[in-house]
């Protein structure tokens, strides 16, 4: 296992800049997820670690060694491709054992090792089949087995679960999590599924347009999103963001928008400075909203837009007068009044504030 | 009722028409199979009576024609190996590398290839070959065929390789394979169905070609079957139908055998493809 470091890495394709400038470092044994919308440069970054793409500028280090121009074969890495890339003319045994074959391992030895790994992944009895003769989930595990069959410095995954159905995906996710705990592998895992990133990562790098917006542990990303972009990307459903007018009133912050007033928020220097500009974005997670009761001071009201029952909970979405939507996650035990108007109450402790540029305003005492 | 009857009528008419067309095409083939076993020269269709192998005996005694079959094999195999090998390497490079203007290269070659194998270029080709001193050698025929067929072969194969995801080779490289290992272990087997198509196509082309060997070769001992077949014409230039038919049947066998062999061994698939 080894660390991975990017020093001012950039990548341009012709005149298009896919990655303008990225620097980060991943410690030995970390499981890092690259999370971001389609086309933000996740795959490109991963391929630069693998050596399948040469950076246009900057340095890539693996285990402290500069590998920027090293051929992939000399990097001692494993990669699971999004399309699995199983060799169609080799049976599973040969597919899984291929990395050992190029390392000069004898046939019986490498097949024994391949069988070992395959057994762990529950595909041990399919070894004589061709990739075209097994199911999608089995193909995915074969490709995983091929990546795990030899010792690697870094394990790279490019959306390995995106082609699986929901149930298989959960199963594979659990398996990867177990593997990480078991082996303590250094892994870089590309996904655009925030739930997958939250579940697997020790740290998440949220990317947008070829830049890393925030690089932090999942809980930090969830609790303290650096920008409205991150807030909008993480959480299921993501954080509600409401543009508000801000003013300071008697040593307290007061926020106002259509159907919403929020008072009694404590003030700090940072907050006061942002409030002086008059505009802020109020962020509140769906799980921190509840149906309002009489006497609730801080509420938000609007017309009911959707009410989706998910079993133990419901997603109630309302549309405010200015067209903005707010979703709440309500435990179904609470009675949901699904008449025309919905009033939701929130707890001021669970409010996140962003300034007019979309950057999070530090909490008091942070 | 009315409607279904008219559909029935239409189908019947279509079937009859299709059968007629089929028969028109099948008749020469039937003649081609029957005529060699007929002792009498007959251009009409007739079940051979008496059934005889005497035509074949005569043909087998014609050592020039028999040797020509061997020459055809030498030239076709030589050409096929050259075209198959060179086209695979060239198409792979053109598909996978990022040489600027690589598309233009293929198209320009394709344009010239129609000139090379066309009869207009015969005089310059003859002059070039004789300048190199290769007139009257198998190599001359093989080289000229390769030059003519290579661009089209490259074009077909490049298209085929373009459709194969790069991730096969990338995963091999990441797994530790050198570029050579990657090519032979992973790329080549995946490209093989495309190579098979090109090889069969090139073989059939060379096997049936008359003009190039006729111009480049002098010695009887080097002539391929496509030229030797004219030894079954009388001095006056009329074909000796019985022998011609027998020789033609023998002449066509290698192509049929090749087709059956390839179909059995590889199957004619024309796709690369990853998972479904
Ligand atoms: N070979 C290439 N040539 C030109 N542009 C490319 C190339 N590869 C990637 N790009 C561009 O670079 C940007 C980043 O691509 P990348 O594949 O890294 O995105 P991604 O974050 O992995 O997206 P997705 O989630 O859809 O897989 C995209 O806009 C893409 O169009
Ligand atoms: Mg991608």
Q: How would you sum up this structure, described in words?
A:
The complex is a heterodimer of chains A (366) and B (276). Chain A is of the alpha+beta class. Chain A folds into two domains: 4-232, P-loop containing nucleotide triphosphate hydrolases (Rossmann fold, 3-Layer(aba) Sandwich), CATH 3.40.50.300; 237-354, OB fold (Dihydrolipoamide Acetyltransferase, E2P) (Beta Barrel), CATH 2.40.50. Helices cover 25% and strands 34% of the residues of chain A. Chain A contains nine helices and 20 strands. Chain A has helices at 42-50, 92-102, 107-120, 136-148, 166-183, 194-200, 218-223, 228-233, 269-275, and strands spanning 4-13, 16-26, 31-35, 57-62, 65-66, 77-80, 154-158, 187-191, 203-208, 211-216, 240-249, 252-257, 260-265, 279-284, 289-291, 299-309, 313-319, 325-331, 341-346, 352-354. In chain A, strands 11, 12, 13, 14, 15, 16, 17, 18, 19 and 20 form a ten-stranded antiparallel β-sheet that branches. In chain A, helix 2 (92-102) packs across helix 3 (107-120). The longest helix of chain A is centred in the middle third of the chain and has 18 residues, at 166-183. The relative contact order of chain A is 0.11. By secondary structure, chain B is mainly alpha-helical. Chain B folds into two domains: 2-52, no CATH class; 62-265, MetI-like (MetI-like fold, Orthogonal Bundle). Chain B is built from eleven helices and no strands. Chain B has helices spanning 2-34, 54-61, 63-96, 102-116, 122-132, 138-162, 167-174, 179-207, 211-216, 225-228, 241-265. In chain B, helix 2 crosses helix 11 (241-265), helix 3 packs parallel to helix 6 (138-162) and helix 8 (179-207) runs antiparallel to helix 11. Chain B is globular, with a radius of gyration of 24 Å. Chain B starts with a helix and ends in an 11-residue tail after the last helix. Mean pLDDT of chain B is 87; it is low at 270-276. Chain A binds chain B through residues 50-52, 71-73, 75-79, 81-89, 98-99, 101-103, 131-132, 136, 139, 146, 150, 156, and chain B through 165, 167-168, 170-178, 181, 185-186, 189-190, 192, 273-276. Adenosine-5'-triphosphate binds at residues 13, 16, 18, 36, 38-44, 192 of chain A.
């Amino acid at each position: 296992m080894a660390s991975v470091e990017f020093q001012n890495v950039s990548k341009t394709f012709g005149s298009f800049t896919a990655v303008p400038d990225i620097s980060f470092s991943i410690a030995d044994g970390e499981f890092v997820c690259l999370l971001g919308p389609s086309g933000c440069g996740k795959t490109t970054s991963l391929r630069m670690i693998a050596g399948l793409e040469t950076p246009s500028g900057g340095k890539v280090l693996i285990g402290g060694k500069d590998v920027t121009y090293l051929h992939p074969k000399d990097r001692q890495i494993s990669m699971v491709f999004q399309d699995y890339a199983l060799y169609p003319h080799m049976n599973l045994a040969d597919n899984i054992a291929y990395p050992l074959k190029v390392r000069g391992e004898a046939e019986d030895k490498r097949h024994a090792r391949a069988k070992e790994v395959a057994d762990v992944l529950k595909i041990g009895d399919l070894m004589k089949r061709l990739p075209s003769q097994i199911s999608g989930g089995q193909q995915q595990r074969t490709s995983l087995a091929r990546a795990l069959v030899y010792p690697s410095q870094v394990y790279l995954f490019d959306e390995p679960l995106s082609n699986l159905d929901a149930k298989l995906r959960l199963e594979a996710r659990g398996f990867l999590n177990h593997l990480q705990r078991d082996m303590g592998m250094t892994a870089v895992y590309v996904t655009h599924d925030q739930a997958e990133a939250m579940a697997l990562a020790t740290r998440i790098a949220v990317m947008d347009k070829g830049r890393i917006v925030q690089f932090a542990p999942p809980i930090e990303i969830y609790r303290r999103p650096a920008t409205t972009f991150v807030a909008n990307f993480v959480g299921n459903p993501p954080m509600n963001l409401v543009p508000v007018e801000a003013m300071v009133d008697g040593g307290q912050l007061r926020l106002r928008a259509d159907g919403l007033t929020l008072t009694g928020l404590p003030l700090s220097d940072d907050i006061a400075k942002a409030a002086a500009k008059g505009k802020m974005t109020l962020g509140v997670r769906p799980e921190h909203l509840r149906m309002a009761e009489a006497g609730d001071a801080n509420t938000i009201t609007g017309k009911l837009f959707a009410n989706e029952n998910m079993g133990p909970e419901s997603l109630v979405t309302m549309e405010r007068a200015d067209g903005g939507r707010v979703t709440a996650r309500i435990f179904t035990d609470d009675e949901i009044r699904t008449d025309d108007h919905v009033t939701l109450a929130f707890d001021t402790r669970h409010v996140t504030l962003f300034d007019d540029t979309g950057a999070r305003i530090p909490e008091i005492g942070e | 009722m009315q409607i279904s009857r008219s559909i029935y009528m239409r189908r019947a008419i279509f079937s009859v028409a299709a059968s007629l067309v089929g028969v028109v095409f099948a008749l020469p083939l039937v003649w081609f199979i029957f005529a060699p076993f007929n002792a009498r020269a007959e251009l009409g269709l007739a079940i051979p009576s008496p059934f005889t192998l005497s035509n074949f005996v005569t043909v087998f005694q014609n050592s020039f024609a028999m040797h020509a079959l061997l020459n055809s094999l030498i030239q076709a195999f030589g050409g096929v190996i050259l075209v198959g090998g060179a086209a695979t390497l060239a198409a792979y490079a053109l598909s996978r590398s990022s040489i600027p203007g690589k598309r233009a290269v293929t198209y320009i070659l394709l344009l010239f290839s129609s000139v090379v194998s066309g009869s207009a270029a015969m005089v310059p080709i003859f002059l070039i070959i004789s300048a190199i001193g290769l007139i009257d050698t198998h190599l001359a025929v093989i080289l000229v065929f390769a030059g003519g067929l290579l661009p089209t072969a490259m074009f077909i194969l490049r298209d085929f390789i373009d459709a194969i995801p790069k991730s096969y080779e990338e995963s091999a490289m990441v797994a530790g394979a050198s570029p050579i290992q990657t090519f032979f272990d992973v790329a080549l087997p995946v490209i093989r169905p495309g190579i098979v198509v090109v090889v069969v196509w090139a073989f059939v082309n060379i096997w049936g070609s008359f003009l190039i060997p006729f111009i480049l070769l002098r010695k009887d001992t080097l002539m391929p079957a496509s030229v030797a077949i004219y030894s079954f014409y009388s001095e006056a230039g009329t074909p000796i139908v019985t022998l011609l038919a027998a020789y033609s049947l023998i002449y066509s066998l290698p192509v049929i055998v090749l087709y059956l062999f390839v179909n059995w061994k590889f199957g004619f698939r024309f796709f690369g493809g990853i998972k479904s």
